[in-house]
Specification:
The chain is α/β, with parallel strands linked by helices and 748 residues long. The chain is globular and about 80 Å long.
Amino acid sequence: MNAQSLELLDPSLIRWMHKKGWQSLLPIQELAVKPILEAKTDVIISASTASGKTEAAFLPSITAIHKDPEKTGIRILYISPLKALINDQCRRLEQMCEFSADNVTPWHGDVSASKKKNLKNDPSGIILTTPESLESMLINHVQWIKESMKDLSYVVIDEFHAFMGTQRGYQLQSQLHRLENLIGKLIPRIALSATFSDASSVSSYLRPNSKVPCRIITAPKGAEDTLSVQIKGYDKPFEQDAFFKDNQNDDISLSEQLQETSEIKAGFEENAYSKISDDIFRLLRGKNNLVFCNSRSATEEIAAKLEMKCSENFVPNEFFPHHGSLSKDLRESLEYRLQEGRWPTTAICTATLELGIDISDVNSIGQVDHPISVASLRQRLGRAGRRDHKAVLRVFLPEGEDNPNHEELYEDTIMTVAMIELLLERWYEPPLSHEYSFSTLLQQTLSVIASFGSASAKSLYELLCQTGPFCLCTPKVFSAFLRSLGEHDLIVQLNDGSLTLGLNGESLVSEWSFYAAFDTPQEYLIEHDGHIIGSVPLNYELEVDSTFLFAGRGWRVVFFSSKRHVISVKPYQYDAQPLTVNGASGKIYDIIRERMQDIYLNKKVPSYLNKKAKEHLLRGIELFNNFGLEKRHYYEGAKGISLFPWKGDRVMQTVVLLLKKENIKASLYKSHIELEFVPMDSLKVAVFNLINNSEINPVDLVKKIRHLDRDKHDEYISLELKQMAYAHSELDLQGAMDFLRILKKELS
């Protein structure tokens, strides 16, 4: 152990390290000691999963609070996006504080009232919480926070990247700013995060609207530096998953949907997921693995196929689903298997296991379908390669002519290769730009008013916008925002001019769901034999005797209540389909599509493609050249015109809206734009008109979009404000016009 580091750390922590058999600190821990102890800057500790970030933050911060023993109350506030992660970290911190006797208290919805009461009566040590629980404290216990946290020394934010650019992230930014204003001092913030290609850009998200310096500490090496990767391709015949997802109708019962879908599938001996499940069984059985899917339905389907495969081969099942709809008991049972590492276990999961819940080392990471983002892929890889061996990534990628109405350039395969190339170059998606976030601004406005009973419009603006995270709001915009709240009786003005909660505002704040910035749809409990096996959000009714997959097994509905929000089920032994809920999605950035174009142009064929994936890539390149896309950005085929801007989603969406403004029917499909039944001359006229129109306003493009409610409280926001917010976050007028100028030259 570095002698200098030993001199700086508290003796009780040294004893704990010796007990653990630590001979030295990890490099990132060494680097973090001095800047955290000095407490003159914010600190971002950026490294892959299991790199020692937790100890890097807490060894010096616990040391610091011991150097100032006369201060009382809660000294360290830890914030996590997951209750499960809090429980993990609580156990680790209790061990770390074994010899120092620091109080470590979790505070979230599953923590007993008695434990919370003990902390309220005798606040001290470290508190671990979520943004939702912190919101509750700021509303209901504001005076207690002011007194118990007056000597707060550090705020530690775990998995910081999971908050960035989200409504939950803006909520957290606002909460920390409110907390500092409440206790009257700046509190050093320590953010623990996955690696970024440009970590310096992250500091503005840690403390917006502030000139407090930020020290960035990065690990010298990540799992992606020693990566073994393979992309396995599969033919995806017309049917299947896409048909079921794209043809759902809320006016048709689920049983009818399932019947219709099964009839379509009857003509196919096996779908792509069947072949993928066969390979997962062959390649991963007998080891510990995580296999990520982009939707809960895919998770369920693959887990069920693997359980059946184990049964057919008379071997114990070691493949289990893991997603947010499963009951806590089922999730924790699987997490326990992974933590113990005594039994071969493969989790078929959504992003629920992407964050740093403590599990044993896994042998490999699987990805079914194309990755959502490079950053997500990086985070998932951080779960493997922990013990001086290469991280292993297997991508199981079905693709093909799944819809005869579209030209197929095997864009999923090309995009996956592009993302892996960028991953190997250590490029990851940059933080999302700041947004208006009116929904979260509404929550924070009502929260502040609820905390103090009333507040002036001026003080709200200064706290939340002028010095807070909602810095895009000008006084004029904020005034329009407050008028929207008033029109819905969320706030009312008192005789002295201050604002207080209206009747609807009081009703909204009194609901437990108010504490969350994100929408929490109505969940239906799934009950079997008196036990809750999970829950699922539904916007349609299930008929008795309809069947579905859940928790890797088939179930038959025996009772359904829309009033009680309960689904009673019995086991069903035959083929069934998963209930479809929204899967993951992510914005595709310019650089990814630009890299795709580069792969097409330069005919890059990586060695990590299997035979079928190579066939798909080469066929895509062949069609790219056959369509003449090496020389231009459009293709005129029998089914219409296809545009290939090779830009990100914001540019693509803007091009579509611009063309619709000129009465050109345009729609996005994968990485290109399709124009149906559009004569070439009409396209030329439209492009000419757009380029020569200097009066185009992005907000005007949004006015024809019917459904702009994206976030939890958007129903209370005026249409004009929602249009402005959408245009800011989703459109790129400059990028779209640049593409249209290129297209004009090619069409001339």
